[in-house]
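User: Let's play a game. I give you a shape written as tokens, and you guess the letters that built it. Ready? Here's round one.
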């Protein structure tokens, strides 16, 4: 593909060299540059791609797209006289996304792309959509926190929203293999970094927004602004689907060119849902006037399922097929997963890592369990938003009979310091019913072995993750394995 055709819509300031140069691949990692590649110098949070332009050229790169002339000259003093085709753009992040879209043949236009943004519910909603439409006989793609899928082919993912080259490469693979739909998580960081720029979405969903990722965004106002970018970019003819029970639900869709569609579990809206009955086996919901049983539990899952239903209607599925499919859907990995054990114990594994997510889960367990003894075990991630730590402790105190404070992904922070931040949110009453155990596996063991018969133990924060990050070391840590091992030991004793 000619360089000119790849960069045409990238916001060019100026070009030098032969724009008819054939490009065989594109990359923003100099280590991935090969003969005929277009190297895109992106200035990121961890490093500046301009510094690696020389390495990319040594590896065979045929052209360079860049944002900062001075940084490029510093890295490659003679590059302006080298004859290498150069493309100077105003914003290399944005240009990377548009170049990727063009290079891979605008793949998002070849299928129905649905995205969801919000603090909570993204992974569950897209995974349920993928499962539902697959069950309806469609070949589908999934781009999520847990994994990416092209049909039934699974690949691991490093970020909630991948880089634009990876996204467009996967979308092309989906389209080429016959996928009709793709369901995608869209993160605030991904939006701020232009990872989804240039993509053609048929529908965008807003779930909710609460305090999260403030280590990155610094303020809630900036976090909100980045979420709203998704709906600002939706084209005319797309759907902007918003949860109006969230106070920012209508803010999200202000000024969008897309058709606004609302959903609610409490108010009048285009599509509504009410919980009729609920126990640990599932919920009976009334969606747009029709009753349906689901194996999922919790008000937050009622919202997730309503979002699934709403977008499914809009992109062409039949109501009867949708509701039948919903009744067959099971929990998403690491989202209110239940493991039953001896002594009538029930362990719930959930990814809840924000105050409101923990409130949703514990509130659900308390509503269903009523007088059941509940243990809440959780920690907080290091090098992340510290303000939520005491807030999560306050939530745990509100619902749980016993609180076990432990580690999560401490990263470069001391676990003991994180735990101390958490404890600041406990009252004197909360302190009495709490214990702190730094080693998470030992904390889980203690929670299970000391739990009263018939009680519930919530393991919050890890969910689908099968690792812990302590310092700079990423080690295997699967709570499902740990729980089953402890239950087996109890039965053998």
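Assistant: Ready! My guess for every position:
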């Amino acid at each position: 593909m000619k360089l000119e055709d790849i960069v045409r819509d990238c916001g060019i300031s100026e070009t030098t060299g032969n724009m008819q140069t054939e490009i065989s691949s594109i990359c923003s990692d100099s280590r991935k540059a090969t003969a005929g590649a277009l190297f895109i110098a992106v200035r990121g949070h961890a490093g500046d791609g301009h510094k690696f332009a020389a390495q990319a050229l040594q590896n065979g790169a045929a052209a360079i797209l860049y944002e900062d002339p001075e940084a490029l000259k510093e890295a490659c003093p003679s590059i302006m006289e080298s004859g290498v085709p150069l493309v100077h753009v105003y914003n290399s992040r944005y240009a990377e996304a548009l170049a990727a879209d063009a290079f891979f043949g605008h793949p998002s236009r070849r299928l129905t792309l649905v995205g969801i943004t919000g603090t909570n519910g993204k992974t569950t909603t897209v995974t349920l959509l993928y499962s539902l439409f697959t069950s309806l006989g469609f070949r589908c793609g999934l781009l999520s926190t847990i994994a990416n899928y092209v049909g039934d082919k699974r690949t691991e993912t490093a970020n909630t929203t991948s880089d634009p080259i990876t996204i467009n490469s996967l979308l092309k693979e989906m389209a080429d293999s016959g996928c009709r739909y793709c369901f995608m998580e869209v993160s605030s960081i991904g939006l701020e970094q232009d990872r989804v720029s240039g993509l053609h979405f048929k529908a965008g969903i807003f779930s909710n927004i609460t305090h999260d990722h403030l280590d990155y965004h610094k303020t809630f106002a900036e976090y909100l602004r980045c979420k709203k970018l998704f709906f600002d970019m939706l084209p005319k003819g797309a759907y902007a689907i918003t949860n109006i029970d969230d106070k920012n639900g209508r803010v999200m869709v202000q000024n969008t060119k897309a058709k606004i569609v609302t959903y609610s579990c409490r108010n009048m809206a285009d599509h509504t849902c009410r919980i009729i009955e609920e126990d640990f086996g599932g919920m009976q919901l009334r969606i747009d006037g029709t009753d349906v049983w689901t194996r999922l539990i919790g008000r937050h899952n009622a919202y997730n399922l309503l979002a699934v239903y709403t977008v499914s209607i809009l992109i062409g599925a039949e109501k009867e097929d949708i509701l039948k499919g919903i009744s067959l859907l099971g929990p998403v990995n690491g989202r209110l997963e239940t493991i039953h054990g001896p002594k009538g114990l029930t362990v719930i594994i959930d990814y809840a890592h924000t105050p409101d997510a923990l409130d949703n889960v514990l509130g659900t367990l308390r509503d269903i369990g009523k007088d059941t003894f509940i243990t809440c075990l959780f920690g907080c991630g290091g090098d992340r938003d510290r303000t939520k730590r005491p807030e999560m402790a306050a939530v745990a105190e509100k619902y749980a009979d016993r609180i076990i404070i432990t580690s999560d992904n401490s990263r470069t922070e001391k676990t003991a310091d994180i735990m101390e931040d958490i404890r600041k949110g406990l009252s004197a009453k909360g302190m009495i019913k709490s214990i702190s155990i730094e080693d998470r596996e030992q904390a889980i063991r203690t929670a299970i072995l000391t739990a009263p018969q018939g009680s519930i133990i919530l393991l919050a924060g890890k969910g689908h993750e099968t690792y812990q990050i302590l310092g700079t070391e990423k080690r295997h840590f699967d709570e499902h394995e740990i729980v089953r091992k402890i239950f087996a030991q109890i039965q053998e004793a």
